[in-house]
């Protein structure tokens, strides 16, 4: 399984603006923010894409979503709303092959996405 830049962030080899961490999850600000708030929630464990998830990963995926929703509530924008996105592979627009959940907030989102 090849390393990504996110592994370096997990190991603190490159800097990141970390907003949450626990035993399984790290969350940090996206370097190229697409909204006033743009945070990435990642598992510490290297899982390349959604396609690599297994049955036993269900609690981890739930924890990723809950970490994001908890963050949204704590930051006070949960009522205004936000968007959670996981891109998968080329057509999904994935560029870093370490599973991550985007939390976007602070502006009106549009649909359909580009
Ligand atoms: P995706 O295109 O869904 O794979 O998302 C990858 C995201 O990682 C992009 O939004 C990038 O801006 C973001 N990203 C890449 N390198 C870094 C970094 N060093 N620190 C924070 N975010 C990064």
Describe what you observe in this structure:
- It is a single chain.
- The chain is an alpha+beta fold.
- The protein has a single domain (5-105), classed as HIT-like (HIT family, subunit A).
- It has 3 helices and 5 strands, in the order αβββαβαβ.
- It has helices spanning 5-10, 58-75, 89-92, and strands at 18-21, 25-29, 37-43, 82-85, 101-105.
- A 5-stranded antiparallel sheet has the order 1-2-3-5-4, covered by helices on one side.
- The longest helix has 18 residues, at 58-75.
- The model has no long low-confidence stretch (mean pLDDT 97).
- Residues 5, 16, 28, 30-32, 40, 87, 93-96 line the site of adenosine monophosphate.
- Residues 5, 16, 28, 30-32, 40, 87, 93-96 line the site of adenosine monophosphate (AMP).
Keywords:
114 residues; alpha+beta; HIT family, subunit A; 5-stranded antiparallel β-sheet; binds adenosine monophosphate
